[in-house]
Amino acid sequence: MPANLTPEFLAARERFNKARSDEERLDALQEMLATIPKHKGTEKMQADIKRRIAKLRERLEQRRRSGKSSGPTYHVEREGAAQLALVGPPNSGKSSLVAALTNAHPDIAPYPMSTFRPCPGMMEFEDIQIQLVDLPPITPEYTEGWVYGLVRLADAVLLCLDLSDEKCFELADQVIELLRGRNIVLSVGPSRQVDWRTVERRTLAVGVKSDLAPARAQELAAWAEGRFPHLAVSTTTGEGLEGLRRAIFRAAGVVRVYTKKPGQAPDMSQPYTLREGATVLDVVEHIHKEFVERLRYVRLWGSGRFDGQHAPLDHVVQDGDIVEIHLS
Ligand SMILES: Nc1nc2c(ncn2[C@@H]2O[C@H](COP(=O)(O)OP(=O)(O)OP(=O)(O)O)[C@@H](O)[C@H]2O)c(=O)[nH]1
Ligand SMILES: [Mg+2]
């Protein structure tokens, strides 16, 4: 048994063991696959999880064809520095946001319930890409289980409100409650596994259609204050969209670290991206597993006092830091 299984993986496995339906089992297995450390020591386990996922998918598909199941399940391959899920009531502008910020072309319609499967797109932010996943709306009447499964797997959440709807805050509260009912707690962050069942997901509240109701942006501020960072935007006029990209980057909870070779200028062409809270040692391990054993010291530029000096290995790196790794 590989020793370095993460708490997220162990929680997902616990969820798998306690699952009561194939849908829940599939959901937990997908989370296990997403959170299992990827190295030689876990290859067998990874293969086993993949096999089980394939089997379950097949079984669910068979059941669907014979008319016994509630419908299909979906999985979105994670790409880029982080994955954010868009949640919200019907017609709130989720698909419009994904269309405005990414290369994807989700269906957009002036009527509710127009999205019925996930649509991922990549958003560029400076020198990295962040994946946004458009989802069907979350409503008390009809939301399939796989939607919650994908929210659970995402790194963070964009909660969309239709500012032109006077009921938008009530509806958003309803979405928050429905997610909570599935043990997904929208929080100010950072995203984390609370116990085997419950996850917290850092959330950014986005008021869409600010062009139709500029005054309601104030109400959004009052509603979101102390709960989530928030922003009002319009996909029609483009107002607020640049600020939104940055806010999404912050919500994603990643830091960019650059490398330099001794005596040379830093390589700013391609950052390494890590979860916020990552340490100097995490960076070294992320760049190359084998570097850890050969590590002599790391010089760090950027966060605070360590400009060019040896940095303690447990020092938490900040976005934009530059490391120079010295090996034996
Ligand atoms: N005026 C205005 N209309 C917008 C804006 N953003 C979206 N819309 C319109 O709002 C309607 C719903 O947009 P969608 O992006 O399809 O909403 P959705 O949340 O994906 O809807 P579902 O998938 O059905 O839950 C469409 O008619 C859009 O053109 C905006 O910023 N301003
Ligand atoms: Mg949609």
Please mark out the parts with pLDDT under 50 across 5 or more consecutive residues, or reply none: none
Whole-number count of domains: 3
First-residue to last-residue Cα separation: 30 Å
Number of helical regions:
10
Fourth-tier CATH superfamily name of the largest domain:
P-loop containing nucleotide triphosphate hydrolases
- Helices and strands, in N-to-C order? HHHEHEEHEHEEEHEHEEHHEEE
Percent helix, as a range, is 25-40%
CATH-level-2 architecture of the largest domain: 3-Layer(aba) Sandwich
CATH class term of the largest domain = Alpha Beta
Choose one word for the global shape. Answer: globular
How is the CATH topology of the largest domain named? Rossmann fold
Mean pLDDT: 92
**Hetero ligands:** guanosine-5'-triphosphate, magnesium ion
Largest sheet: 8 strands, mixed
Give the helix/strand layout:
Elements: H1 7-18, H2 22-35, H3 43-65, E1 83-87, H4 94-101, E2 119-125, E3 128-134, H5 145-153, E4 156-162, H6 168-181, E5 184-187, E6 192-193, E7 199-208, H7 216-224, E8 230-232, H8 241-252, E9 254-259, E10 267-275, H9 280-287, H10 291-294, E11 295-301, E12 309-310, E13 321-327
Parallel strand pairs: 1-3, 1-4, 4-7, 5-7, 7-8, 9-13
Antiparallel strand pairs: 2-3, 6-7, 9-10, 11-13
Helix pairs in contact: 1-2, 2-3, 2-5
The chain binds guanosine-5'-triphosphate and magnesium ion.
Which features characterize this protein?
328 residues, alpha/beta, Methane Monooxygenase Hydroxylase, Chain G, domain 1, Rossmann fold, Ubiquitin-like (UB roll), eight-stranded mixed beta sheet, four-stranded mixed beta sheet, globular
